[in-house]
Amino acid sequence: MRAAAPQSVVHWEAAHAAVDAAVRQAEMLGIRINVAVADSGGNLAAFLRMPGAFLHSIEIAIDKAYTAAGFGFPTSAWSGALEGLSKAARDGLPRRPRLVAFGGGLPLRVQGELLGAIGVSGGSEEQDEQCARAGLAAIGAEG
């Protein structure tokens, strides 16, 4: 029996480059965001808050990354993921602490392997996801 299993995580340099690219995209869009990268265990690996970004969006960005890392799919996919589940599951899952069921969180995969996730908050869901995608693209990752 094995007592431990290896787990790949996003490297700090990639996490830093991803938050930088997401913020640069936000500047191009004229918005102020908070952006977080979590590793594959949901632990915060990098964070950046633009001056003037909403304070409540700090935790939302971190929780978007946590949610996307924990489930391995975009936070925007939760509405579809909840379809077909029991009413109790549809009502209860989105109420779980730290689970975010709206857009802006993307898993971070390299060659199909989940290494973590990126979460952005501060713009519309579409803008947040656009910034998150810019972060992934900067490090050669896919969502």
UniProtKB/TrEMBL annotation:
Pfam families: HbpS-like
Matching InterPro entries: GlcG_carb_metab_protein, PduO/GlcC-like, PduO/GlcC-like_sf
Highest taxon of source: Bacteria
SUPFAM superfamilies reported in the protein's UniProt record: GlcG-like (SSF143744)
Ranges in a coiled coil: none
This protein's name: Uncharacterized protein GlcG (DUF336 family)
Higher taxonomy: Bacteria, Pseudomonadati, Pseudomonadota, Gammaproteobacteria, Nevskiales
